[in-house]
Amino acid sequence: METLYHQTNKQIQEVQSLMGRLENTDRQSVHLLENELQARIDHIFSHLERLEILASKEPPNRRQNAKLRVDQLKYDVQHLQTALRNFQHRRYSREAQDREREELMSRTFTTNDADTSIPIDETLQLNSNLNNAHRGMDDLLGSGSSILTGLRDQRGTLKGTHKKMLDVANMLGLSNTVMRLIEKRATQDKFIMIGGMLLTCVVMFLVVKYLG
């Protein structure tokens, strides 16, 4: 398990390094980097599934600590997945705005003998509405990212407290029932974190659907 754990941790660090190159990558190559990052993240998730199985097979006195280490890796890669999706949403919004601007500039105006009619007011209003929707989407993505970061920080605090409780429990020789209650609380905290991420994704989907 130790070998696979360190290998997976190294892969996460490599993905974090590549994520820093996204903003500076040109348009022609950015989707290639996105595909590479997604492939690496998927590979890490497959490693995590294997690590979860190995952690469950650890001796009882080491099992809880092994699960906590795997959970830490899992939260790290989930954070990277969310960051990649946020970047892709922002890129799609920018590209849509560029296309709309090009279509507006290339539109053919209509003329007749009596006067000149430029059907541009409606287009400008539509473009303004779309820009407002895009700005609202960017704000929502930023808020969602902040919420996820806050949840992750809270999970880190709970993880530290949980580990200290386990250490004290081992020192005092608390019963297996108490140990199971502690482990159940850790599982609940994990579900709260995942629920927050899913809720943010649903809100972003609804904004894209109804404002886009």
UniProtKB/TrEMBL annotation:
Membrane-crossing segments per the record: 191-211
Database matches in InterPro entries: GOSR2/Membrin/Bos1, v-SNARE_N_sf
Cell compartment(s), UniProt: Endoplasmic reticulum membrane; Golgi apparatus, cis-Golgi network membrane
GO BP: intra-Golgi vesicle-mediated transport; protein transport; vesicle fusion
GO CC term (a single one): SNARE complex
Domain of life: Eukaryota
Record's keyword terms, sorted: Acetylation, Coiled coil, Endoplasmic reticulum, Golgi apparatus, Membrane, Protein transport, Transmembrane, Transmembrane helix, Transport
Membrane topology note: Single-pass type IV membrane protein
Pfam families per the UniProt record, alphabetical: V-SNARE_C
MF terms in GO: SNAP receptor activity; SNARE binding
Role, per record: Involved in transport of proteins from the cis/medial-Golgi to the trans-Golgi network.
Family as reported in the entry's similarity comment: Belongs to the GOSR2 family.
Name used for this protein in its record: Golgi SNAP receptor complex member 2
Organism: Hucho hucho
